Amino acid sequence: MSVSVQQADFDVGAEIAALSQGRLEVGAVASFVGLVRDVSGGAEVAAMTLEHYPGMTERSLEDIVGEARRRWQLDGVRVIHRYGRLEPGDRIVFVGVAGAHRGEAFAACEFVMDYLKTRAPFWKLEETPDGAHWVDARDSDDSAAARWGTESEPRPGD
Amino acid sequence: MNIKILYFASLRDTVGRAEESFVLPSGVATVGDLRAFLADRGDKWDALAEGRNVRAARNQRMANPADPVGPGDEIAFFPPVTGG
């Protein structure tokens, strides 16, 4: 299974190893791990709760993986995204990509993260000393996704 | 002509409900029409008004305002996503 949406933590080493297990054609594995930080916009963050849209979340991540596989010749792609309550230092997301060479592995890994940031239906609720508040999306995430040369996410009302 | 409407995150908090069953009125043919119809409920539903930063999905895929809405559809409205 290339996509998992789960509450549980994951084993980064095991996931990276699995991407090349028994595949001697793999010459490069690139990976990314996203973590909860203890600051956000200058405020202390005690914890965050990740909400998602069950069903659409899995489908959108599978679409993103499919798009990466169309753009690059890849031997394996793995995406894990957690939801629920997480604390600073906790892992949120894992993206791993296996290919013949580093070029496509690095590029596809970054592409998957950039697309995930603007298309996968997750929302962060941060707990700070001032109370809980929803994190606003950043324009820089849209521009990061847009540089891959396709139209950005549709924006009803624009 | 029933559809299901879902609301997520801050938008759900604002409108005060996570989902509703909705009978499509005549004249509501697209995702954009539906959003405008809901915004016309007034008060807290102003969060769906034109110009507000709201995204939509139709049957669990990102949708454009011009996308059609039909019986049995699942339409979701939510703020821009913040995962990763």
SSE topology:
The complex is a heterodimer of chains A (158) and B (84).
Chain A: E1 3-6, H1 12-20, E2 28-35, E3 39-40, E4 43-44, E5 47-52, H2 56-71, E6 76-82, E7 84-86, E8 91-99, H3 102-119, E9 122-128, E10 131-134, H4 139-146
Helix pairs in contact in A: 2-3, 3-4
Chain B: E1 2-7, H1 9-15, E2 19-23, H2 31-39, E3 55-58, E4 61-62, E5 74-78
Parallel strand pairs in B: 1-5
Antiparallel strand pairs in B: 1-2, 3-4, 3-5
Please summarize what this structure is.
Chain A is α+β, with helices and mostly antiparallel strands and 158 residues long. Chain A is built from 4 helices and 10 strands, in the order E-H-E-E-E-E-H-E-E-E-H-E-E-H. In chain A, a hairpin with a 2-residue loop joins strand 9 and strand 10.
Can you describe what's shown?
Chain B: Keywords: Nucleotide-binding. The complex is a heterodimer of chains A (158) and B (84). With 158 residues, chain A is α+β, with helices and mostly antiparallel strands. In chain A, 32% of the residues lie in helices and 33% in strands. Chain A has helices at 12-20, 56-71, 102-119, 139-146, and strands spanning 3-6, 28-35, 39-40, 43-44, 47-52, 76-82, 84-86, 91-99, 122-128, 131-134. In chain A, strand 9 (122-128) and strand 10 (131-134) form a beta hairpin. Mean pLDDT of chain A is 93; it is low at 151-158. Chain B is of the alpha+beta class and 84 residues long. Helices cover 19% and strands 26% of the residues of chain B. Chain B has a five-stranded mixed sheet with strand order 2-1-5-3-4. Chain B is globular and about 35 Å long. The model of chain B has no long low-confidence stretch (mean pLDDT 96).
**In percent, how much strand structure appears in the residues of chain B?**
25-35%
Radius of gyration of chain B: 12 Å
Shape of chain A: globular
Uncertain ranges of chain A: 151-158
Oligomer: heterodimer
Q: What is the approximate shape of chain B?
A: globular
Straight-line distance between termini of chain A: 36 Å
Query: pLDDT under 50 segments of chain B (min length 5)?
Result: none
Strand content of chain A: 25-35%
Order of helices and strands of chain A: EHEEEEHEEEHEEH
Distance between the termini of chain B: 37 Å
Within the largest sheet of chain B, what's the order of strands?
2-1-5-3-4
Average of pLDDT of chain B: 96
Number of β-strand runs of chain B? 5
Task: Kindly state the percentage of residues in helix of chain B.
Answer: 10-25%
Counting H and I runs of at least 4 residues, what is the number of helices of chain B? 2
The largest sheet of chain A is: 4 strands, mixed
Rg from Cα of chain A: 16 Å
Structural class of chain A: alpha+beta
Number of strands of chain A: 10
